[in-house]
Amino acid sequence: MRDITLGQYYPAQSAIHSLDPRTKLLGTIVYIVSLFVASGIHSYLIATAMLALVIVLSHVPFKFLTRGLKAIVIILIISVSFNIFLTDGTPIFKIGPLKATWEGLRIAAFMGIRLIFLVMGSSILTLTTTPNQLTDGLERGLKILNKIKVPVHEIAMMMSIALRFIPILSEETDKIMKAQMARGADFETGGLIKKAKAMIPLLVPLFISAFRRASDLAMAMEARCYHGGEDRTKFKPLKFARRDYVALAVLLIYLVVVIVL
After folding, report:
1. What does the alpha-carbon distance between residue 4 and residue 158 come to, in Å, rounded to a whole number?
2. Phi, psi of 219 (to 5 degrees)
3. Which of 4, 205, 212, 252 has the most CB within a 10 Å radius?
4. Cα–Cα distance for residue pair 88/252, rounded to 1 Å
């Protein structure tokens, strides 16, 4: 659970940290779209170069960033296996009724790279943006939806709180596991089914802790007379700087190149 990086913030002085949260949100969306648009090795090489550039500029340690990939290992293995063995084409080898194909191997490779880049690209957003900045960016970016009565502020606040609670609940789960292991609980040995059953006793105290934290947060917001709406002012108003326009221009060029390739 400690390997989950999504929702955590990594404090640093970098070009990516200093960007407007709206720029980073748009950049993340553009990068995700480009991964689904990319269909060849040249497109993925460009996507790899863009991700590497952002990682270098963010000053986030690569080892810290890759910790989040451990959470998707099972999903990655299942997705890759299904593509290798369930795609028709030129056979490589057979295991009983299952047949691995070269076409399936190619699709599986691209699928695996896409999943890895999705997690790493999304993690960069939360690692370089505080929850408050993320809320402000979402609210300002979706402000036009207020005209059709969409509660943009409430939606942005819920997403921000959800992201903030991910590392908190991860730490709480780790504490509960250590406490139960000190009392003789075994979470390491046995097969997959046994490990899954061993995790069930974690759910009750984890849910109780989550509800308690949610109740404390609600009481704290009420005690401070918090309420959403257009009348709220910002301590640090968002404003695009020159670096944001440069970043947006680079994003546009990147997306065009990926689409053309």
Report:
1. 20
2. -65, -40
3. 4
4. 36
Question: Cβ(178)–Cβ(21) under 8 Å?
Answer: no
CA distances from 233 to 2, 94, 104, 143, 188 (A): 36, 64, 54, 14, 50
* Alpha carbon separation from 201 to 42, 104, 114, 188, 192 (Å, rounded): 48, 40, 35, 14, 16
Beta bridge partners of 99: 94
Q: Whose CA is closest to 89, among 77, 105, 113?
A: 105
The answer to whether the CB of 138 falls within 8 A of the CB of 155 is yes
Residue 150: phi, psi to the nearest 5? Answer: -85, 125
Q: Beta strand pairing status for 91-95 and 98-101?
A: antiparallel
